[in-house]
Amino acid sequence: MVNLKIVHARFLASLVKGRGLGRTTIEKTKVTPLFRLRRRQRPNSVLGFSFDLFDLPGGILKMMQYGLVCLLLAAMAWGQAANSTSAPAQQPGASPAANPTENKDADASKTPPDAPVITINGLCDNAPADKAADPNCKTVITRAEFEKILDTVQPNMPPRVRRQFATRYSMALVMAQKAHDLGLDQGPKFEDRMKLMRLQVLSQSFSQAQQEKAGQVSDKDIEDYYHNHSADYAEATLLRITVPRAQQLPASKVKLSAAAEAKRRKDSEEVMKSEADKLRTRAVAGEDFSKLQEEASQLAGTKTKPPTTKMGEVRRNGIPPAHASVMDLKTGEVSTVISDPSGYYIYKAVAKEVEPLDKVKEEIRAALRTQHMQEQMQAVQQSATPTLDESYFGPETPVQHGMPLPPPAGSSSAKPSSSGPK
User: Is 419 helix (H, G, I), strand (E, B) or coil?
Assistant: First the structure.
């Protein structure tokens, strides 16, 4: 008979060692009926590859000590799902104080640390044949023990999610006992899975430690970067005239040869190029950009509404690289005609300023954090390089990337963030 106290204690110890489990692991963890979430299910994974953790009838848990880490991963996903889900709309006239969940949360704080909060009757070491007849056959988990798990899984877990987690954790202990009774915690296959699970936990813990280290960005680091890259945080309020590269010509009433059609197209391009030069001269003279834009669209024969000339406040990395020179314009100055495959462009700088440090401080902190993390992981990758036998694995194929990372904190569609540390 497995010692339930040892199993529970080892699980608590594994939580402390596995604090590094992060979002990546959650997204790769399969949710079985035992650990059902309100999100799309994903397969269990070890080092990014999936396997069936519950492959016996009834979904019997096949892991004991480190196996309960799967419960940890599921609960972390619950917590994140709960935090990302908007609260239901409050009915008119309802009082916030009437929320029963908040009342339960307040009551929970009054429970003594050594008070039992989970009691599993019928689960004990050396259980008798008739467990129901033995009132002492039970497993008790105190508030302190349970909250030690919660602190590692999801700090400040909502009461509703906390209750779900307690129910599933209790059932996992019961299933672990049943798995032991069936001998599922014995044999080379189980040991191999334990090794792989431990490897994943350690790699995720290391990744989390690296993230915490990368996040150690001092105010001096931020100030130094800001002063060395002040041009990255210069904003210009710009006007822009967009001139199509060629006219939208109506279909010819007679069939033209290929050479005649090419000449017709070239002539229309020459007309628009000449018009762009004329519009630039008029812009320098102070004519209204909106009026000039309307004339350019009419000459081009476009049937859609002319594009707006007001670009608002933009940074250097918020415009095409070939147009970046407009950021060097002085206030009131008009650019030369800028040509690219999509057309001709004329800019005017209405106002210019450099965003203050206080406004971009968190943006720089996030950029430096990302840079530090990339540098650290590159150092790890360069410290040891695997060599694969192509006769066994075959030639390398392009990697299929998953969901893209979110933009760095502080980015904005209206004001593109700095390109980050160089």
Answer: coil
| Cα radius of gyration (the chain) | 32
Asked whether residue 243 falls in the same domain as residue 185, the answer is no
* Inside any domain, residue 297: yes
Q: For residue 106, count CB atoms less than 10 angstroms from its CB and return exposed for 0-12, middle for 13-18, buried for 19 or more.
A: exposed
How many angstroms separate the CA atoms of 90 and 94, rounded?
7
Amino acid at 322: A
Kindly state the helix (H) or strand (E) to which residue 354 belongs, with its residue range: strand 343-354
234 in the same domain as 205? no
Burial group, residue 160, by CB count within 10 angstroms (0-12, 13-18, 19+): middle
Which run of H or E residues covers position 9? helix 4-17
Task: Answer yes or no: is 372 within a domain.
Answer: no
Give the phi and the psi of residue 147 in degrees, each rounded to 5. Answer: -70, -20
In sequence order, which residues have a C-beta less than 8 Å from that of residue 319 and are 6 or more positions away?
Answer: 238, 311, 326, 327
Angle value at C-alpha 185, between 180 and 63, nearest 5 degrees:
95
State which of 335, 354, 373 marks the end of a domain. 354
Largest CA distance in the chain: 101
Shared-domain flag, residues 319 and 198: no
Q: How many domains does the chain have?
A: 2
User: CA 84, 79, 370: angle at the middle one, nearest 5?
Assistant: 70
pLDDT 10s per residue in the chain (422 long)?
445 555 555 555 544 444 333 333 333 333 333 333 333 334 444 344 433 333 333 333 333 434 454 445 444 444 444 444 444 444 444 444 445 444 445 477 889 999 999 999 988 877 666 655 677 889 999 999 999 988 877 878 888 888 999 999 999 999 999 999 899 999 999 999 999 999 988 998 899 899 999 999 999 999 999 999 988 899 999 999 999 999 988 888 788 888 888 898 999 999 999 999 999 999 999 999 999 999 999 999 988 999 999 999 999 988 999 999 999 999 999 999 999 998 999 999 999 999 999 999 999 999 999 999 999 999 999 999 899 999 999 988 876 655 555 554 444 444 444 445 54
